[in-house]
Amino acid sequence: MLREVVGRILKRYREEIGLTQREVAIRCQKTEMAISLLENGKRDPSFSFLFSYLRAVGKPFTKFASDLEGEEFKEEIKPVIEKDMPKETKKKVLKYAVGIRYLMPGVISFPEYAKEKIKREISQMKEEKSLSDCLAFAEEYFQGLEKTRENRRNVDKLKEIQNKYKEKGLKLPLMIKVMQITGDAFRREVKRLAGQKPPQETRQKEMVERYARGEEIKDRVIKRAKEYLFQKKGMSYVWFNAYLRAVKEFFGRWRRAKGKLSEERIKEWEEKKIREGCDREILGEIMKIVSEELGKERSERIPN
User: Global pTM?
Assistant: First the structure.
């Protein structure tokens, strides 16, 4: 297994700079057959052969060691990501797994202490009627900051989120306060994450498997929700997407609460969505789909 991974990495290096196996063989003073066997995982290279190959393709050993560790980890979690799940879901699971292993961006979420601080500030400003919009804005803005951290080209997304809530009528002083609290929380979470050590390997695998299971359930939920919404004739494209966002939002809340979302919190969320223009009957069906799929997941995990 290891030599197959080594061969795959070396072959990738060679192809990146456009060399043939014959050209690498000449630089290494080896036969073309030896290079072919190495790249196809048919032989174990000696250290001198490995260093000769790396010099031939212009790659330092430190780069090779880093890539080898990453490839080995991908092999470890292959059974998880090779399940019968959509391609995009596999990508998300792999990104999450690598994030846990190497503490990369994409594994932090909007913290509860920031929500509580926003609630207190809004209460002091006597703007309780805007609380739900402020919390929704904070969550979206936090996600936007995370996307910007992954890729600076996503910075325009932050402006889009601000403009969206301006159009919804959220007052500028409230937006500024929410952005300040959210930005502070984001920087604090990034700093906390940077100071963490990756969990032990057994724990990593458990976390990846749990995340993959959650994404599979979300796929089923969204599929069922789409089938239901397609039956609603006359529904506009805008509202179709709005209800899909509601599905993901409710699913996320239920998962974070570990299936213990109180009736009060459910009612609060439902009323908020109705104020935004959603239909009560459709929301009811959406919540039913989410609870049924999560209920199945819990029953499957409980042995008879």
Answer: 0.47
Is 201 inside any structural domain?
A: no
Closest CA to 49 of 59, 38, 41, 58: 38
Give the range of the structural domain holding residue 10, as residue numbers without chain letter: 2-74
Measured distance CA(135)–CA(168) in Å, rounded: 14
Helices (H) and strands (E) in the chain, counts: 15, 0
Boundary of a domain, candidates 74, 95, 120: 74
- The answer to whether residue 239 sits within a structural domain is yes
pLDDT tens digits, residue range 10-34?
999 999 999 999 999 999 999 999 9
DSSP annotation string for 243-285: HHHHHHHHHHHHHHTTT---HHHHHHHHHHHHHTT--HHHHHH
Total number of domains in the chain: 3
- 206, part of any domain: no
For the chain, how many residues are written?
A: 304
